Amino acid sequence: MAPASVQPKIYTVHDIYHLPEGQRAELIDGQIYNMVPPNRIHQKLINRLSQTITNHIDRKQGDCEVYPAPLRCILKQRQQKLCRTGYFSYLRQKENG
What we know:
Layout: H1 13-17, E1 25-28, E2 31-34, H2 40-59, E3 64-68, E4 80-84, E5 88-93
Antiparallel strand pairs: 1-2, 3-5, 4-5
């Protein structure tokens, strides 16, 4: 007899909210990915990069905001667009129309 295939559990925002206090994780496509905290040098570099990017956006009168990781947010596709890299989340209001 062939073994039954196991369906992977699909996690939701509810599961993220019920993680133990202080546990860092991301919910991506129904899967939870645990994250380790960044070290001091990493945070120092991120702070400087964030400041540089923010200054550039301000000089160009852009409408983006820079949020250095970690950032807890839940975005609804109809409201906003989130472009994420490993270090920053760039949040831009969705244009009208």
